[in-house]
Every structure is written in structure tokens, then in C-alpha cells.
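Hello Y.,

Per our agreement to keep a running log of every chain we model this quarter, I'm adding this entry. I've kept the format consistent with earlier entries: sequence first, then predicted structure.
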Amino acid sequence: MEPSNFRRKNVGLRLLAILMCCGRWTECAASSGDSSSVQHLLADSFREELLITPLDTEHLHLQFKFTITTPRRAHYGHVDLFPKSVADVMEKHALEELHLVLTQGLYRHRQWGYAAEAWAPTGAQVYAWFSPDDTSTPFSSAASQHSVDQRWKGLTNSLAGLFCATLNDVTNAKSISPVWQFRPQGLTRAGSVNNSLVRYSTLPRENVCTENLTPWKKLLPCGEQSGLARLLNAIKLLSSHYFSLALNVRPVCNNDNRKSCAVEEQLLQATFTATAVIQPGSVQDFNKLHWSLKDIFEVELERGCPLADQSLIYVDQGLPGSPMQEMALQPFPSFTMALPENNHRLAVYDLANSTTFNGPKFTLSGKSPSTVQPGLHEPLLTTHRFVAGYGQHKGAIKCRLENHDPTSALRVQYLEVLPWFLRVYLHTLRLSVPILRSHFRPARDRIAPHHIELLFDIPSASSIEFAVEFDLTLLKWTEYPPDAHRGFDVPPAVVAVMLKSPEQCSHVTMMPGFDSCFLRLYTEALLVNLPTPDFSMPYNVICMTCTVLALAFGPIHAYTSKSLVVGEKESAQRPLVKLKNKVKALIAKWKARRTRVAVPDSTSSAEQDSSPTS
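Predicted structure for the entry above:
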């Protein structure tokens, strides 16, 4: 038998053995009464979507959305498409919901409009809702709070290892329990919505890199081998103007529109979202945007993920009558649809349909006749946050909020989380409009940050300013980072608003299932310069000490190791006298030399005179 035929036969026998073992395992599970596990394995679903939105500034807003659902249960011993590591984290730490976002860059909503889904602040943001330990124990009890704090610490450490991020830096000194913000997005049990069960924290200095993107893609059913995940080119995404990775896990019903359902109808939904704002490299004519997925990502799609129930690409064509309606797309879309929420029209490509492909590989390109008129989709609410003051003793944080709606006011929830090393005083808080509700929790040194939440209305066509003063403190020398002169990060403020109608959501063209009216804005993260000691002083002291010791060691060693001999003291003489003495010494030396030469000559002559007489 040839080696190649033997190898093929060996592989075939192995596959047959694996299939027989799988069938035997299924029969054993069914006979042992564990038929629910088999049903759960077959009940997972997966869909992948991509939304492409041309922006006014000749940029493309790209949002990848991968949604995986599995039946909700107490123990996730076996899963099919749902990532096992995420299920283990949810089970181990008794989580109801988990939301993690890693972001590079600042989303400029003034130029780009509101995103298709709530964007995130620069760095890392994580918040989670925990299940209560015991329904008979009050949520606010010390034991319950300690349990939640321990689970919160374990959760951040687990996420740090799972996504190769420094989320283990999240401590209680950087975490709060929001009172009105960050409400549950999924199903909630009766009476379980208590702010003592939620934890929220941000790390503005967290950098997003390939080490975060790679494990994120590995959690997808098809990884990066096929489907829309093939387009996630790390070099292209990380060189974009804005890039964000998100993981949102929440319980939902079979029908997302229902707010409550029986336990057997509940699902655990994990949504992986990657958002990027990219400027295509080919802008050939003025006010004309040319783009293609191949040029942007340098990858062509061969097919959708074979494990996906749906694999769709949406292209936003704007409102009826918009110039974007005349966008030339290649190939022709599978179908078009209009969103009932805001009347935006979408061109849809179904990658599961073979007729969608214009060849062996799918290449999507677009050519817009002109960009959208500036100001047509101006955001109704804009924010700007900055640090005021000078010196290293006092300062202030100010945030300007502008309502561009000419007819109606906006009700805003405002959240500030300030580090404990800023001495914030409540009596210095200033707001140019009446405060409807407020919550303030002062910081505790090295234990908890300042927590400020406000509810107020912004009048129509007006701007208001929030301001609070603080004192700068001097930290312990071990608490300063290596680059202390760079400054200390202050997390961004969070502004939540519910718009009156979906049409006011700028060019928010969301995929089905997105909430089109609620918006959460994030302001800029800030840098504050604290009084910093001169860390070069130890180096200077070491150098000075070593120099002094070196200079002192030489004489001390000489005095202790050499014998002292007293010599004649030379009298002070004038230079002329010294010269005269030297001349005399030279003459005396010369005379002495002549005398030694003359003595031998006289001796030899005397010997010659005496020799004849003898």
C-alpha cells in the first residue's frame, strides 16, 4: 500500500472514530436524562453584520456587530457557538450583565454626528451588574457590599487576562456605583435593580493594541478565518481616527421586544462590536468620496461565516432626497430597506446568498456624487470639558453643554467621577441652570473617588456651564508614576439624554434592535498637573556624596599609610639669590670634577721618577 493511501485511510478511520464517540456521548446524555444539554448545544445562534455610513467629512463610519445567543442557565458546562471563556466569567462571578469597551482616539461628534451606537471614552471602560447573594439579605448591608467588591475585583482580573489589558488596575479607589446612569440593558429580576449591585470604572490611560484585538477575534465562532471578521485588519484599524472594541453580555428574551419572559425562554446574548472611523485613501474629486472594502482593509471576502444564521452588510444611503441616495454601489445590493425609526434608507447585501457575489470574491465599493451638506445633521447636544486655573495649588474643572434645538429643552443626566487626590468642595459647584436632582459622595483618600450626579434641563438654543473647584495635593513619593511630569488622568464626564424623536438623532442609522433615541455622550479626558517633587534630587545627592567621599579618601589614605619625615625648612629667598646660589653650586661642582682628574696625573708622574733609583 502506498504511503499516501495509507495516510488517507488512517485519517478516515480517525474521523469515523470521533463521529462514533460523539454519537455515543449524545445517546448517553439522552439516556441519563440530560437531554437539555443536547438541546442547548443545538440552540445557539450567531449573526454578523456590518454597517457602513459615509460621513460629512469624507470619512467612513464602520461598525462590525457579531451577536451570539445561547439559552440562559445556571451552569454552562457545554456550549456550541457561545464563547466558553465568557460563559465561565459570567458564571464564576455571578453576573447579570457585563459591558467592556476598549477605545483608541476621541469620537468627534461635532464633526461626525452621533454614532450608530453609544460610543465610549478614550481608554478602557467596564461596568457590570451582579446578582444578589441572597434575596433575604439587604442589598445595602456591609456583607453584601463586601461580596460585590470581591467579585468586582475578581472580574477585572479575569478580563485583564482574557483580553490582555491592564484592567487589574481597576480598584475601589477608581470605581463607583452609579445612582441613575448605566441602568440594566437586559432582563431584570423583580427588585434586583439596586445601584449597590453595579460597579463602574474607567482607565483613561489604557492603550488599545493588537494584543487586545487578537483575543477578541478568537472569541468569535469563525475567528478571523471567514466572514466579516476577515476584514478586521489590525494595521488598518489601529491607524484609523477612532477605533473601539466592545463586549456586551446581557440576558434577553427570545423576542427582544419583550421586557419579561419565563426562565425557559430567556437567552444570554453576547454582542461583540468593533467601531472605526476611517478616511479612505482615494478622494479623487472635490466633494466626491470613493471607497471600497478591498482598498480599506486590503482583504477580499470569499463568503460569510458558515456558522452564521445571518451575514449582512448595510450601507447607509441617508434620508429620502439626500445626495447619498445617488451613491453608486458595486455590486447592486440584494435589497433595500427603510428604517421606520428615522426613515433612513439602507442598501443590504446578504453574504449567505450566492447571487450577491460579483465573482469568486465579494468586493464592495461606493462612489458618492457629493458629501452631505454641512449642518444638515448637526448634533442637538454638544459638550466641551477643560481644566481652568493655573499654578500647583488650586484649579477648576469646567464643562460647557450646548443645546442646538431651537424649540425644546433637553433633560440631561450628568455624571462626574473625580480622583481622590483632587480635593473637591461641594460649595464651589456652579451650574447656570437649576438642579432638579443631585447626588454627591465625597472621596476617601486611597479608598474611593468623588461621585457627582446631577439632573437638570438645558433651555432651547442655549449653552450652560458646569464648574467645580479643587485643591491639588502632594502624594507620597511611592504613589507617583514614572512619568509624573506628564500629569494625572481625570476620567471623562458622562452625559445621558433622551431625545424627543428618532429623527433628531443626527445621522444615526442603526441596525435593527438598536435604541434610536437614548444617547450617552462622553466628554474629553483631562490631564491635571499635581505638585511633583524633584525626582532628580536623589541622583544629585548621590553624585555629590560620591564626589565628596572621593576627594576626602585620597588625603585620608595618604595620611594613614605614609610615614612622615621632618625635613629642613628652606628659607625664603629671592629669585636673584636663588640664581646666584645655583651658579655657585655649578662652579663648585665643576672645580671638584677638575680636582678629581688632576690627582691621578700627579700620582703616575711620581712613580716614574722613583723607578730608575731602584
